[in-house]
Amino acid sequence: MAEMKKVATRDSYGNALAALGAEHPDLVVLDADLAGATKTGVFKKAFPDRHFDFGIAEGNMMTAAAGMAAAGLVPFASSFAMFAAGRAFEQIRNSVGYPNLNVKIGATHGGISVGEDGASHQCCEDFALMRSIPGMTVICPADDIEAKAAVKAAYEHQGPVYLRFGRLAVPVFHSEDYQFVIGKGEVVRDGKDVAIIANGLMVYEAIQAGELLAEAGISARIINMPTIKPLDEELVLAAAKDCGKVITCEEHSIIGGLGEAVCSLLSEKLPTVVRRIGVNDEYGHSGPAAALLKQFGLSAEHIVEVAKDLCK
Amino acid sequence: MTSSEKKQLQINACKVRMGVIESTYGAKAGHPGGSLSAAEVFTYLYFKEMNIDPTNPKWDGRDRFVLSKGHTAPGLYSVLALRGYFPVEDLPTLRHIDSYLQGHPNMNMVPGVDMSTGSLGQGISAAVGMAIAAKYHGKENRVYSLLGDGEIQEGQVWEACMAAAHYKLDNLCIVVDNNGLQIDGNVADVMSPYPIVDKLLAFGFNVHAVDGHDFEALEKAFDNAKKTKGQPTAIVMSTVKGKGVSFMENDAGWHGKAPNDEQYAQAMSELKAQLAELEGK
Q1: Same domain, yes or no, for A24 and A128?
Q2: Residues of B engaging A, defined by a Cβ cutoff of 8 Å
Q3: Which range marks the domain in which residue A223 is found?
Q4: What's the pTM?
């Protein structure tokens, strides 16, 4: 495949905020001393009076965002996934989720592709935490185009939204005319033998796996599932019905994320064999992102292995 | 403050206390101690200080109040009912299944509640966010938040204090109800928050230490807060937990316990006597 343009979705986040900020004066951005890394610095440069740094105090930042939303602003509260979803979980649950306030959480550095910083900063639990909050929308876009569209959709959505972005530059495979809708998945390749449902940077791996599987005579339906909650149940059920076998792929623990959401749905409505590809209930460690992804089986090659095994 | 104005505030504070007893008795649960210690400040805020409209609870230009010590919802509900946000007769439904009067304040269910609270340490942060939003919108409305002296053991309170001073939130006034008691006993024994005034001064606040049961002292402090520019104000109130009901005063056991039938009767009779005296009957 030809070399594709690569962009980290955290960059998409910063750029999308700056673009949206120009249109919407009620949009403000909060950060916790990570504006350079979360890329909200791009927004800060454009709108210095609308960017609020709360220092290294994520709990206060998240609850202050709730107060801002209660007073009519649309705050995007930003930090690494570990500290947004992790440290500030209870603030999000009680001060954002419970009152259903219009706070958008921009969490960058999700998953093990954080790389060299190691396990303390590699959040593989955020989908699980955020999914458990009633009324929370949970989104993990796959590339630059989708990430920018997701930020816009989150702004337009009334209610709390958790957006997960990555540190690593990933291929931009969507075309500019791609239409992102919260709660809707996308069939990026049709197939009938096995359905591979992925989100985040695993979508491009799944697309590559689809091509490799086709060469091996296996017809895989590749589904991009950016919204983990609410899940596109119709698309999952149709895939399970048509293919009879499902594989989920996510840069997250196999506990509590996309895989479990798909399993929960299928076990109740259409029992189907599912294999979950993700981080297998373990911590990450330091290393280059690409090497880590391979080591943890978050790769096209591993998807192919699992699919071949499943289709034996 | 005129003497008749003061007398009316005292009468209202007594009625707020009666509402606290009615609601916790009706709930057979709840937190009377810290609701009673704050009866004067609840009354002062809702009957004198804040620019509000009970017929339009969501009015955009209103002053806002965040009950950071959310467990004293009986005090807040009592003053809101007395101020006309909802019927006083509903107070005994506190904590009942299907009642809108949740155990801790819910902004989407109770008219007049500006922020859902209950998890200690978070209300002040929400108030900081509201104060930033008011400044952002160029509005004149003010934001108030009431904290417990046990609550300030939460680290997030001090994160919020840092932010309040950093963003020069002179439209924010926090009140610390220093009644000296928390569930496990004296705050000084459980985990001392003292010296509270010095800490708040060090965090960049304009600080007033007042008798929290003295309306004239409260008026001076709140008036000074409005005149203070460039920094937030903190009013540290010395109060008596359980104030107004003899057997509840200064007893940590009444932090989160409802009166039984006899205790209810005695508490109401004491408060009715206080009210009669204030009304000169």
Answers
A1: yes
A2: 60, 64, 66, 106-108, 114-119, 121-122, 125-134, 136-137, 155-156, 159-160, 162-163, 166-167
A3: 186-310
A4: 0.97
